[in-house]
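Weekly sync, protein design subgroup
Attendees: M.S., D.O., the rotation student, P.L. (late)

Item 1: inverse folding check
M.S. brought a backbone from last month's batch and wanted to see whether the design step gives back something sensible before we order anything. D.O. pointed out we never logged the input encoding, so this time it goes straight into the notes. Structure tokens as presented (279 positions):
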């Protein structure tokens, strides 16, 4: 029976399914991390509560699994993943090194920064790599992602949900951003992390360097300037060309879809088959 097939929070007709099917979004994840590191409290929350240097690839895969579950998992799977994340964040605290003040990791102000930088990075990277998204598609994607924001504990009405709102949000946030020592340390680590076992001095290392450089170059000009790197238009052009070439290269590889995506496609096909039989 397919009457009770659950297509999750978004479904096959969503922009979210279309965007997140793109392997180039691995670059988007790095762009988001570079952006997130520029908020002093956000990055302190990471370095004071995380083992990212000890297990960077495990952390990366856990994050990817969470995003995949939210986008392609069943509604119950997504809600369980969100509940686990809220419980984890609810237990964590960090201390502001400037003021000495203790703050919660699940402070909505910080959660909103992380959410916005993520969805902006996903949409921006997809578009600049050649995914044919219209302005309306981008706004629809941001609106769809209010469901993801709600899962981490945000009130949807407090979250920017269009390209114009996100641009305004960044303008308001920029006075809070700074290139702190932890931000520099994280950026360097992202550019040159220890490679997984067996891949140390192999082509994987220069390949990762290209991915990391692309993620950084795709940052907004104002963010690159905070990092004291060129904010030139030529960098934007080069980053867009690199992203398009990267997407084309990934499309030519025999990449195997993960189990979360594969199961989502199976459920979607079950619904299509039911609809065809009923027609």
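Designed sequence read out in the meeting:
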């Amino acid at each position: 029976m397919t009457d009770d097939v659950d297509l999750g929070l978004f479904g096959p007709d969503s922009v979210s399914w279309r965007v997140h099917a793109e392997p180039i979004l691995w670059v988007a994840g790095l762009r988001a991390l570079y952006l997130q590191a520029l908020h002093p409290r956000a990055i302190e929350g990471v370095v004071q509560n995380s083992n990212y240097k000890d297990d960077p690839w495990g952390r990366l895969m856990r994050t990817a699994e969470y995003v995949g579950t939210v986008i392609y998992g069943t509604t119950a799977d997504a809600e369980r993943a969100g509940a686990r994340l809220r419980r984890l964040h609810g237990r964590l605290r960090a201390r502001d090194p400037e003021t000495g003040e203790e703050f919660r990791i699940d402070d909505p102000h910080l959660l909103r920064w992380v959410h916005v930088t993520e969805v902006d990075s996903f949409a921006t990277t997809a578009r600049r790599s050649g995914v044919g998204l219209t302005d309306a598609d981008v706004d629809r994607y941001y609106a769809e992602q209010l469901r993801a924001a709600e899962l981490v504990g945000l009130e949807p009405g407090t979250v920017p949900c269009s390209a114009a709102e996100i641009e305004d949000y960044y303008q308001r946030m920029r006075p809070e951003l700074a290139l702190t020592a932890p931000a520099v340390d994280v950026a360097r680590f992202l550019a040159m992390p220890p490679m997984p076992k067996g891949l140390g001095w192999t082509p994987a290392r220069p390949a990762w360097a290209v991915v990391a450089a692309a993620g950084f170059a795709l940052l907004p000009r104002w963010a690159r300037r905070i990092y004291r790197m060129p904010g030139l238009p030529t960098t934007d052009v080069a980053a867009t060309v690199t992203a398009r070439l990267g997407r084309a290269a990934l499309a030519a590889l025999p990449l195997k879809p993960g189990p979360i995506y594969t199961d989502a496609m199976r459920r979607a096909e079950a619904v299509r088959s039911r609809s065809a039989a009923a027609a």
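Discussion: The beta strands are 93-95, 102-104. The CA atoms of residues 89 and 106 lie 5 Å apart.
Action: P.L. to compare against the previous round before Friday.
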